[in-house]
Amino acid sequence: MVEIGEPAWRGRQVAEALYQQRVRDVSEITTLPKGLRERLAAEGWQIARPAIARAFQSADGTERYLVQCSPDDPLTVETVWMPEGDGGEAGDGSEEAAKEWRRATICVSSQVGCAVNCQFCLTAKLGLQRNLTAGEIAGQVVAVLERHAVRVGRDRVNLVFMGMGEPFLNYDNFMGAVRLLVREVGLSPQRMTVSTSGIVPGIERFAQEPPDLRPKLAISLNAPNDQIRAELMPINRKWPIAAVIEAVRRVPLRPRERITFEYVLLGGVTDRPEHASEVARLVRRTGLPAKVNLIAWNPGPGVEYATPKPEAVEAFRQALAGEGIPVYLRQPRGRDIFAACGQLKRTVAGWGPPTSQDRDVGGPASVAT
Ligand code: SF4
């Protein structure tokens, strides 16, 4: 606005129109004088934001979207909506249950693909295609809020930066998105969680962020020791567990805040009783207020691991709880539409690689169940 000779506070009006009123065209920014709107349009100023190109709906109410970030770029990223209404939690899968959400979680991508190469993750198969901009990361959230007519402040929405990509390898844009989401959209950073595979320089920067902008932190641990972790997550060779924990210690936690350790249970690889004891010791030794989120591995094509047996999952959970570690078993959401953890790979239908349909944008969102 300043560049075109307008006062800076006009910029605030534009930001409000973009992020709160979610307008789609310059002509709809009614807080600007009509003459200015006409001038902006005549000079070619446009509003563009990530758009849901395709939507897939799970029997459990979860929706997975292929989001086209920019009209000029056909690449899509994945964003997931997980409603958790009382009916939905009952898990009867009915349409009504899916609609009656009381709170919801949006899983947001920070990169197209990922370079970290965790062996159990389908996104890793894409490699890193590009970083998303701050606007593209925040814009995924705005697109989903609009689709579900979410009223920020009234509806309870949590964000998890756990979609495609490693947020701390796109740090400036990730935190830029957080700033937009907090300051412009009005979401609370305490309802946001960012998960990292353990990028130590990123955690160190994150520790410096002010509390009114800092989401909660989750560490994608996934193994009881360095040896197994290095096999599953090559990044561990660069930053082993002790280095990650040391960096996490520098993050000043808010009252009652806990660090989350995410732990993917791979059948026969990370789900044995001795692994549970080792994880309990590891978490206790950190001395951090922490909890463990267990995730039974979600199968994906071309990834040679086994889903853990339900008895093994329950035994693991009980072993940690028995050691006094707060532990939660994350229910798989949207497994049937490849929306669950580690499954995001722009898969359009059934088992298989992304197809040309991935880039098929425009037109109304189609729903596949
Ligand atoms: S688990 Fe996360 S960090 Fe690891 S490859 Fe997949 S998207 Fe990247």
Describe the structure.
This protein has 369 residues and is α/β, with parallel strands linked by helices. The strands form two sheets. It has an eleven-stranded mixed beta sheet with strand order 12-11-10-9-8-7-4-3-2-1-13. It has a two-stranded antiparallel sheet with strand order 5-6. The chain is elongated. β2 (63-70) and β3 form a beta hairpin. α11 packs parallel to α12 (310-322). It has helices spanning 9-19, 34-42, 86-90, 95-99, 134-147, 171-185, 200-206, 226-232, 235-238, 241-248, 273-286, 310-322, and strands spanning 51-57, 63-70, 73-83, 103-107, 111-113, 128-131, 156-161, 192-196, 216-220, 259-265, 290-296, 327-330, 367-368. The structure holds iron/sulfur cluster. Iron/sulfur cluster binds next to loops. Iron/sulfur cluster is lined by residues 114, 116-118, 121, 123-124, 164-166, 197, 342.
Number of strands: 13
User: What is the strand content?
Assistant: 15-25%
Parts with pLDDT < 50 across at least 5 consecutive residues: 86-99, 349-369
Alpha-carbon distance between the two ends: 45 Å
Query: What series of H and E elements makes up the topology?
Result: HHEEEHHEEEHEHEHEHHHEHEHEE
Shape: elongated
Number of helices: 12
Please give the share of residues in helix: 25-40%
**Biggest sheet features:** 11 strands, mixed
Q: SSE layout and pairings?
A:
Layout (H helix, E strand, L loop, with lengths): L8 H11 L14 H9 L8 E7 L5 E8 L2 E11 L2 H5 L4 H5 L3 E5 L3 E3 L14 E4 L2 H14 L8 E6 L9 H15 L6 E5 L3 H7 L9 E5 L5 H7 L2 H4 L2 H8 L10 E7 L7 H14 L3 E7 L13 H13 L4 E4 L36 E2 L1
Parallel strand pairs: 1-13, 4-7, 7-8, 8-9, 9-10, 10-11, 11-12
Antiparallel strand pairs: 1-2, 2-3, 3-4, 5-6
Bound molecules: iron/sulfur cluster.
Iron/sulfur cluster (SF4) binds next to loops.
